[in-house]
Design brief:
Helix content: 25-40%
Shape: elongated
CATH superfamily of the largest domain: Bira Bifunctional Protein, Domain 2
CATH architecture of the largest domain: 2-Layer Sandwich
Radius of gyration: 29 Å
Distance between the termini: 40 Å
Structural class: alpha+beta
Length: 505
């Protein structure tokens, strides 16, 4: 039945643990295993409650007896009343009150005498409704399934320390129904996205996470070393270049949902590892992708929460209407409206620095023109994009992988989708001119050299060779899964929808 557990040295922090260890030893001394290997649960609590309500409707005011249900779950509260014990048990579906009388349980009541909040138990008995009207279990048998050693957070205050909630997410899931709901909704959203893409003929693939060149985005990578290959490798910052190689190979509709890794700061919207979906469709452009994005978000939200209007949340957001079509805003025109300046007309770095100073925008030292303009967009346009919007047609300097817009000098066919002032998606008509692409990569390498910009995109010779064999016109997309989950769950911090976010020491 297991060896007797040693008691900790007495100290303030160990007293509660010691009391529980004594109970473990007491149970074992009575021949009761506090950690059995299995349990035959017949119903979830929620299922049994619904069955009981159905019987009530059937029998009206007549008395009836239910079958004996076998539940299992965690003890959330205990109330002793002489020779009877009330305790609440919670499983993944619901919570129920259990009413146990000493004369009904006999020797099994010894288990209840060792019961603590946080223990996991099996409970067997019919359902009744108490005088106070609460559906309860009339306990006929109880089984200790897991004797907890450490106590749960206080029932009423819960985990108030936000940092502790993220570090000990398992406790947050036990005590915080919203955290549990977020954890369940996230995979449902990902499943819905997959089904949306499958219905449109896309093929899901997996591409390398360890890569020799961290290209396909403008970000600082994490670096590692492979002993057998005797070379440096990087955690991928994007899946773009590998997926476009597959388009070259004839997989005309391809997508991947997976983790990306960027060595960047941590805030409400950023975590060093995050999840995206990238997709690429041959013979499509950014207009086709825009339509797909608004349809995807609309359909996923409607499937998950039953409506395309996300309800207002005090202090976080107003009602958000996701119904297509979303407004398209020309970036150049919008910049002029917001700042009174045509940044596209004069791309001299001294001019943009001077203009930013006049606008009261912080100027990063030794930053390129493209990075400075991105700062202007972030401060003067993005905060006002509360309802879904597309910003379209970006300067070529900001988009080294996007196709040039015909008839408009220095502009590419790119859009970003914004909701609640935050970027949700980024997409291009993909550049498939290998000569132009090589020149753009070389310019990015020059920017890295001149400005010391370790986030500039990198020249990937193997990718260039692939598109030199011919890549069809292609519409590409990157959509932030974490941002979409935040939107649907009504959260304003990425750490609320990641089960295990990165934390500072």
């Amino acid at each position: 039945m297991g060896e007797k557990i040693k008691i900790f040295e007495n100290s303030g922090s160990d007293k509660l643990i010691n009391e529980r260890i004594k109970k473990i030893n007491l149970l074992r001394s009575k021949g009761i295993d506090p950690y059995p290997s299995t349990y035959n649960r017949t119903h979830l609590i929620g299922q049994a409650k619904e069955k009981f309500k159905s019987l009530e409707n059937e029998f009206k005011d007549s008395k009836f007896d239910t079958e004996e249900f076998a539940f299992s779950g965690r003890v959330m509260s205990i109330r002793s009343m002489g020779k009877a014990l009330f305790f609440d048990v919670k499983d993944k579906s619901d919570q129920i009150q259990c009413f146990a009388r000493k004369n009904n349980l006999g020797k099994n009541y010894e288990i209840l005498e060792c019961l603590d909040i946080g223990d996991i138990v099996g409970v067997i008995g019919p359902l009744i409704r108490t005088r106070r009207g609460e559906i309860s279990v009339d306990v006929k048998n109880v089984v200790m399934l897991t004797k907890s050693v450490r106590p749960l957070p206080d029932k009423w205050s819960g985990l108030k320390d936000i940092e502790l909630r993220y570090r000990q997410r398992y406790l947050d899931l036990i005590s915080n129904s919203k955290a549990y709901s977020n954890a369940i909704i996230r995979p449902a959203i990902i499943k819905s996205i997959r089904e949306f893409m499958y219905k449109r003929g896309f093929i899901e693939v997996e591409t390398p996470i360890l890569v020799p060149i961290p290209a396909g985005a403008q970000a600082k990578p994490f670096e590692t070393y492979h002993n057998s290959l005797n070379r440096n490798l990087y955690l991928r910052i994007a899946t773009e270049l590998y997926l476009k190689k597959l388009v070259v190979g004839g997989i005309e509709k391809v997508f991947e949902i997976g983790r990306l890794f960027r060595n960047e700061g941590i805030d409400h919207y950023h975590n060093p590892e995050f999840t995206t979906m990238e997709s690429y469709q041959a013979y499509a452009n950014y207009e086709d992708v825009m339509k797909m994005v608004e349809d995807l978000v609309f359909e996923v939200a409607t499937e998950i929460i039953g409506t395309h209007v996300l309800p207002a949340i005090d202090g976080i957001r107003p009602d958000i209407n996701l119904k297509p079509p979303w407004p398209r805003l020309d970036l150049r025109t919008t910049l002029i409206d917001k700042t009174g300046v045509d940044f596209y007309e004069n791309r001299d770095i001294k001019y943009i620095e001077s203009t930013m100073k006049d606008l009261g925008i912080h100027i990063e030292s030794n930053a390129s023109w493209a990075r400075l303009l991105d700062k202007v967009i972030s401060e003067k346009i993005e905060p006002d994009l509360i309802q879904p919007h597309f910003l379209i047609d970006y300067p070529v300097e900001m988009s080294p992988l996007a196709k040039r817009k015909i008839g408009v000098n220095g502009v590419v066919e790119r859009f970003e989708a914004f909701v609640l002032g935050s970027e949700l998606a980024n997409a291009f008509s993909e550049l498939n001119d290998p000569i132009d692409q090589r020149q753009r990569f070389e310019e990015q390498e020059q920017i890295r050299s001149i400005y010391g910009d370790d986030e500039s995109d990198r020249l990937d010779e193997d990718f260039l060779i692939s598109i030199e064999h011919g890549m069809p016109p292609t519409g590409g997309l990157g959509i932030g899964i974490d941002r979409l989950v935040m939107l649907i769950c009504g959260e304003n911090s990425i750490r609320e929808i990641l089960l295990f976010p990165q934390m500072r020491n």
